[in-house]
Amino acid sequence: MSRLPDGERLRVAHVAGPRTMIVVVAAAVIERDGRFLVTRRQKGVHLEGCWEFPGGKCDDGESLTACIRRELREELAVDAEVGKDFFTVTHNYADRSVELHFFHCEVTGEPSPQIGQEMRWVRREELTTLEFPPADEELIRVLTLG
C-alpha cells in the first residue's frame, strides 16, 4: 500500500462556502492480500449506491479511533487494530461539509455485512472502476498510484 513517510499525513480541502452541517467521519482502509475492502452505500442514505471504505460518522464526544472500531463491529462484525490517520479530506456537498479521516486498519476475523450492504475485496486497479463519493476521489488517486 502507498504510505507517506512516518509522521506525515496528506490533507486535502475543497472549500466552496459556508454549510449548515459539518459531519466528521472516520473510515478504515483495510488491505489484505493486495485487495482493499469496500462496501456499498444502501438506498435511502446520502450518496446511495456509491462504494466507500468502511466507517461512519463520529458520535458526539467519540474519538476517531473509537468511531472506526464501533462502525466495523456494527457493520461488518469485526474487531480492528486502528493504525495511523494518514489521509484527511474536507469536502463540501450542497447540504453539508464532510471532514473525512482515513486510517490504515487491520481486522480480526472475516468481515460479514450486518446491515444488508454489499461488500467486496477489490484490487488497487479496480478502485477506479467503482463509483466512490466525491470526497474519496483524492484518496483513490493516491492508492492507485501504487
Kindly describe this structure:
14% of the residues lie in helices and 40% in strands. It is mainly β and 146 residues long. It has one domain (10-137): Alpha-Beta Complex (Nucleoside Triphosphate Pyrophosphohydrolase). It is globular, with a radius of gyration of 14 Å.
Note the main sheet. 8 strands, mixed
- Please write the string of helix (H) and strand (E) elements: EEEEEHEEEH
The CATH homologous superfamily is termed: Nucleoside Triphosphate Pyrophosphohydrolase
| Amount of helix | 10-25%
Strand content: 35-45%
Structural class: mainly beta
CATH class: Alpha Beta
Oligomer: single chain
User: What general form does the structure show?
Assistant: globular
Number of domains: 1
Report the count of strand segments.
Answer: 8
CATH fold call: Nucleoside Triphosphate Pyrophosphohydrolase
Termini gap: 7 Å
CATH architecture: Alpha-Beta Complex
The residue ranges in which pLDDT falls below 50 over 5 or more consecutive positions are 1-16
Mean pLDDT: 87
Output the radius of gyration.
Answer: 14 Å
Number of helices: 2
Layout: helices, strands, pairs:
Elements: E1 10-14, E2 22-32, E3 35-40, E4 51-52, E5 55-57, H1 64-76, E6 79-92, E7 97-108, E8 119-123, H2 137-144
Parallel strand pairs: 1-6, 2-7
Antiparallel strand pairs: 2-3, 2-5, 3-4, 3-8, 6-7
